[in-house]
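Morning!

This is the sequence you dropped in the shared folder:
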Amino acid sequence: MNLASLIYTALVLLQVGIIVTGGTVRLTGSGLGCPTWPQCVSGSIAPVPHQAQGTLHSWIEFGNRLLTFILVVAIIAAVIGALRWGRGRSDWKMIRLLAATQLAGIVAQIVLGGITVLTKLNPFSVSAHFLLSIALIPPTLSLRERIFAKARTTVLPTTKLLIRIVTVLSLVVITLGTIVTGSGPHAGDIQAKRYHIDPRQISWLHADSVIALLCLTLALYLVIKVSEPVETQSFIGKKVLLFLLVCLSQGAIGYIQYFTHLPEALVAAHLLGAGLMWLTIWNVGFKANVFSRSKS
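The structure's back. Tokens below.
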């Protein structure tokens, strides 16, 4: 693996990984392990011995902050790499925009993370923090794919429309999932507020949206197999199948965790699945040239 591949692959993995570590903070009740920001406690960036929040909770929250620092380093490396490897290319303007998005995104994440702590894990700020992580996955993946000039294709209008619908519905599914989490028991701290929504009702609405997503994804795959050229069937069809597999796994985990009363390990797996689901459907759209006017 060369340097460029290492930098941009690591960046994609870190953008997904920060979702899991952030979820781990909440699932372990460590959301206020560092009760202030940007310091962990007054007068110290790191946890201190005999901290009131407990050593384990403090270091779990601090560990998530350290991963953010690593992500910052990866983003700086990616931006420098974009300036080096993207200059003079036909899509140079887009590469610069995607690189700038990385910088703006991590600044927004740091600020929003501080707001989340200072508002004592208000569910609106927690949800926004998660959704911002989701929002940063597409430009990160797009930057990686453009730097390496990965192969892309053009699909028929019906396929393009279905990919767009499935992508939007995927975002709806993920957003509903954040509301389910915000109304459930894993608040990150015993005193944190929750959404005043019936967890059972919002969970079933979330499940219904997942069923709709699975049906539309299957329809998308069948349309590709029936109407697209053989090369496109193989190129895009395999990526749609991968997305379908991720969605099926997510649905299975979701149902199991609901009926087993939300064990922490399954909830963490579900968070990872949400990041992978968004990553794979965006990859379908990017490879099918759905989100741009040209192949550049």
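Headline: The mean pLDDT is 91.

More detail when I'm at my desk.
O.
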